[in-house]
Design a protein that fits this description.
14 helices; mainly alpha; two-stranded antiparallel ribbon; 1% strand
Length: 320
């Protein structure tokens, strides 16, 4: 009996998901057409406030609804949209919600059929729903780290392009062709925002919101200030890149301090032992000095100590 109830719950949830999926795609074309019309009207009127709203991605305004009833709160839908953008996924909020339900149902059904206690499947099903969310967050964090690792290289390219006589838009286009993903994807998206009517400031602000990184916030703030008050943008970007490089170098020095100390300790232990035996028992260590074979072994040990010290130093000396 319990197995039948569990199966009925799974089938009902799957049917609900299918209805949501079909209904969502029936209304998607209408919603997209309305949004595109709104964007075109904003571009023609050149309303600054409206253009600012247009700079926000379509997925940010999406909702999960069925028959006019919101299944997910607007705030939560906005958080999901931001996470999807930060993770670099093209799913809409509605598709993301359906994906979480499908994974939850699949995991619950698999567990139910794999063991003799059907109620365990009902308990495990929410794990699939939560697990997809955890995976999205981890993917977003990993992608943010990759973007931050490419930022200094981007700043150097932009500074070089500006010195060559390019405008900021042209420098961004040139950098997007040279720098690998995922940063090139974000740059092209920023340029696409400007192409559909958003100003460069609004496009950069949208980029800052998508990436949600402190490093990007510093760079974009510096560009905003330069465009407002003037100045040599190439020198500003070089200064920001130098500051970030020094900060990264300081972080690396902190993280590798234990390894550097280990190298000094390992190199110092044989020397300390030799001095100890010279003081406590000179006769014990005398053959290393008086005997020819002992002197050869002592010389080999000294050479190996020096080589080992420099190898450890080379390993922990990371260039930025």
């Amino acid at each position: 009996m319990l197995l039948l109830v569990t199966a009925a719950v799974m089938v009902g949830a799957f049917g609900f998901t299918l209805v949501l999926f079909v209904f969502g795609y029936r209304t998607q074309a209408v919603e997209t057409g309305m949004r595109l019309s709104r964007l075109k009207g904003q571009a023609m009127t050149d309303d600054r406030d409206s253009t600012k709203n247009a700079g926000i991605g379509l997925r940010r305004r999406a909702s999960v609804s069925l028959g006019g009833m919101n299944l997910v709160s607007t705030r939560l839908a906005g958080q999901w949209a931001a996470q999807l953008e930060q993770a670099g996924l093209t799913l809409t909020v509605k598709e993301y919600f359906i994906l979480r339900i499908v994974v939850s149902l699949g995991l619950g059904t698999a567990v139910t059929m794999a063991q003799p206690f059907p109620w365990i499947g009902l308990l495990v099903a929410p794990v699939g729903f939560v697990g997809v969310g955890v995976w999205i967050k981890r993917r977003a964090v990993s992608r943010r780290k990759k973007l931050e690792a490419q930022l200094v290289e981007l700043l150097q390219m932009l500074a070089s392009g500006l010195r060559a006589g390019f405008g900021l838009n042209q420098a961004l286009e040139s950098a997007a062709e040279q720098i690998p993903a995922p940063l090139s994807v974000e740059i092209r998206r920023t340029l696409r925002d400007t192409a559909v009517g958003a100003s460069l400031e609004q496009a950069l602000e949208a980029l800052n919101n998508r990436v949600d990184s402190g490093d990007f916030d510093i760079v974009i703030t510096a560009i905003m200030i330069q465009r407002a008050v003037g100045g040599n943008l190439a020198e500003i970007l070089d200064t920001v890149a130098h500051t970030m490089r020094e900060r990264i170098r300081g972080e690396i020095q902190t993280l590798t301090s234990q390894q550097r100390l280990t190298g000094f300790v390992i190199a110092g232990i044989p020397v300390a032992l030799a001095l100890y035996f010279i003081v406590v028992s000179p006769d014990y260590i005398a053959p290393l000095i008086t005997d020819s074979l002992g002197r050869m072994l002592l010389g080999a040990a000294v050479v190996m100590e020096i080589v080992g010290f420099f190898v450890i130093k080379k390993i922990v000396d990371i260039e930025v």
